[in-house]
Design brief:
Shape: globular
CATH class of the domain at 21-192 and 227-260: Alpha Beta
Distance between the termini: 68 Å
Radius of gyration: 29 Å
CATH superfamily of the domain at 21-192 and 227-260: Metal-dependent hydrolases
Number of helices: 24
CATH topology of the domain at 21-192 and 227-260: TIM Barrel
Strand order of the largest sheet: 8-9-16-13-10-15-14
């Protein structure tokens, strides 16, 4: 008989799990698992990473999550098909949007409204003594779940290794028989290997704002919350083989895979009954005539024909129309904007006004912008005045609605200094020792941290406590700290965005974002549009206003003199403070040599 671990907490349950989703999947594959579930608390933030790792290893990931409710025992939720997954994602969105970022307020009534097609496992509370004295509130809640969720419900049984496991498992078995709810075996996994128990203790201390010496019963009592081999789980539940078998019943019922998510780009509104490709063609030639007049250069004509044919082949006309619409709105509102990077290689982007760089003049290569050989979507970054970029972002929200547009997440990671501070504080180091370590620990090598730098601060690197702090810090670096918002990357969909990924409130007012970052959406084939802010564009716009006021000149990014020797003289002398992308120390030292 096989076994599937259905209760796995990764480090995307912030300050609870002590292993990356990929590590959980890789360990499961090494043990011969054919499937594994990821059940982080009230979030789906880590499932794409686990899914990508599982695909590489030929395993199956069951996308799932743990629902911590405000008025009832927690539930593990396993969507069986794509409709059930959409319901789960919408459920999390409801909980996220009714509270501030970082919280998800869910109630039993919310679950019942989004329960169709989902398998649930009810979890006994952590205070096991109450439960196994048949605490009435828990029994009543499970009875309610059974009445409203029916055969979708199971009850979890895990070994706590507290000395009375036999009694506890028997009581759960009795309750499952009494209420006709299948018992299912889980291990409540929090890390992929026993060695990570120490790090799990540390992140618990960080969460509870205590030290390892004062944490007490807030820590797990032992190091058994690791992913166990299949035969070990069979041994631990040898008296309850049906609990092992129930893991396979749930696994076989859950046929949904993230590969089934079909991202559909929004249908852009076109004029006079044209298709998106016809609309793009019309707007491109219209823009070309405005720029070049009736005598469009043959080279420009050839470039337009070539690019339009390629865009039709890869079906990206609607993407270009979306970017054009955003730029058109900005220009109507007198907001200065400019396409950045390889978008300048496209004649179409120039004709649509997305970029002011004439690619025919500079003989730029279109394939650097978009190519069938790379099989990647176009990356059009548009910069807007930083003081007015918010107007453009709110326009996108208004046009598509907050149920169809949201900002991509950024997973903020633990870096060297933050990690050493968290670990050092949890391990009880003095404030001055933590400050010294944080000031000098900015890098680590394959063999560990630089001992000479540690000695130079009067700290003994061979001290057992210091060694343990450095070892745990090395493991802790790159752990996710929180879900932030991308600087301006938008995901826009034709249908409900919450059917694909949960939406949450950002810290900033009137902004919402999804739980996945740019790497996650790229892995699933979602397109994003970058609406970025650039301070120098604000400076340029104000300079244009001054030139208009004092010299009555109407300058734009397109008609400003491109070959003024004074500009290149200043660049040659590295006089570029404030000029985007050539203002860093490294660039400034390179410019005179160039």
């Amino acid at each position: 008989m096989s076994y599937t671990e259905l209760q796995v907490t990764t480090n995307f349950s912030f300050l609870r799990g002590a292993s990356h989703p990929e590590e959980m999947v890789e360990q499961a594959a090494a043990y011969g698992y054919t499937a594994i579930a990821i059940t982080d608390r009230n979030t789906l933030a880590g499932i794409v990473r686990a899914h990508a790792a599982a695909k590489k290893l030929g395993m199956r990931l069951i996308p799932a999550c743990r629902l911590d409710l405000l008025d009832g025992p927690s539930l593990l939720a396993f969507p069986t098909d794509i409709q059930a997954y959409a319901q789960l994602s919408n459920l999390l969105t409801v909980g996220n949007l009714r509270t501030e970022k970082g919280k998800c307020d869910l109630y039993k009534a919310d679950v019942y409204q989004h329960a169709i097609g989902t398998k649930f496992i009810v979890l006994p509370p952590a205070s096991l003594n109450q439960v196994f004295d048949f605490d009435d509130s828990f029994k009543n809640a499970v009875h309610e779940y059974r009445n409203l969720l029916g055969e979708q419900l199971s009850i979890a049984a895990s070994r706590s290794y507290s000395g009375d496991d036999a009694k506890q498992l028997h009581r759960i078995f009795q309750l499952s028989r009494q209420l006709h709810i299948p018992m299912v075996a889980t291990n409540d996994v929090h890390y992929h290997h026993p060695e990570r128990r120490e790090l799990q203790d540390v992140v618990t201390c960080v969460r509870e704002k205590c030290t390892i010496y004062t944490a007490g019963f807030r820590l797990h009592a032992n190091a058994e919350r690791y992913l166990k081999p299949i035969d070990e789980m069979h041994r631990l539940f040898r008296q309850y083989p049906d609990a092992i078998a129930q893991t396979q019943v749930i696994t076989e019922a859950c046929t949904f895979s993230l590969d089934q998510l079909k991202y559909q780009y929004p249908k852009e509104i076109t004029s006079e009954g044209r298709t998106p490709q016809q609309e793009l063609t019309f707007l491109t030639w219209q823009g070309a005539r405005q720029i070049f007049g009736d005598n469009i250069p043959e080279k420009v004509k050839a470039n337009i024909d070539y690019e339009l044919a390629f865009i039709e082949q890869v079906n990206y006309a609607e993407y270009f129309l979306t970017v054009y619409d955003i730029v058109r709105y900005a220009r109507d509102q007198k907001i200065l904007c400019q396409g950045r990077g390889s978008a300048a290689n496209s004649t179409i982007c120039y004709c649509l006004g997305i970029t002011s760089v004439d690619p025919s003049k500079f003989d730029l290569l279109f394939e650097r912008f978009i190519s069938s050989a790379r099989n990647e979507p176009p990356d059009i970054d548009v910069d807007f005045e930083h003081e007015r970029r918010e107007e453009v972002m709110q326009y996108i929200y208004r046009k598509y609605g907050r149920d169809r547009a949201a900002i991509v997440a950024t997973v903020t990671q633990q870096h060297h200094r933050g990690a050493i501070r968290d670990v050092g504080k949890a391990m009880g180091l003095s404030v001055d020792t933590i400050q010294r370590l944080a000031g000098l620990i900015w890098d680590f090598r394959d063999e560990g941290f630089d001992k000479d730098r540690i000695i130079s601060q009067g700290i003994n690197p061979d001290d057992p406590t210091i060694q343990k702090v450095l070892q745990l810090t090395e493991q802790y670096i790159s752990f996710p700290r929180q879900l932030g918002q991308h600087t301006g990357g938008f995901v826009i969909t034709q249908g409900k965005l919450a059917d694909l990924c949960p939406i949450l409130n950002a810290r900033m007012e009137d902004r919402t974002n999804i739980e996945w970052n740019k790497d996650d959406i790229e892995a699933l084939g979602f397109l994003k549009i970058d609406v970025l802010a650039l301070g120098m564009l604000t400076c340029i716009r104000k300079a244009f206003d001054l030139v208009k006021q004092h010299y009555n000149l109407d300058l734009t990014l397109a008609n400003i003199p491109q070959d003024d020797p004074a500009v290149y003289e200043m660049v040659s002398h590295a006089d570029t403070i404030g000029v985007f992308q050539i203002e860093s120390r490294a660039q400034q030292s390179m410019l005179p040599r160039l």
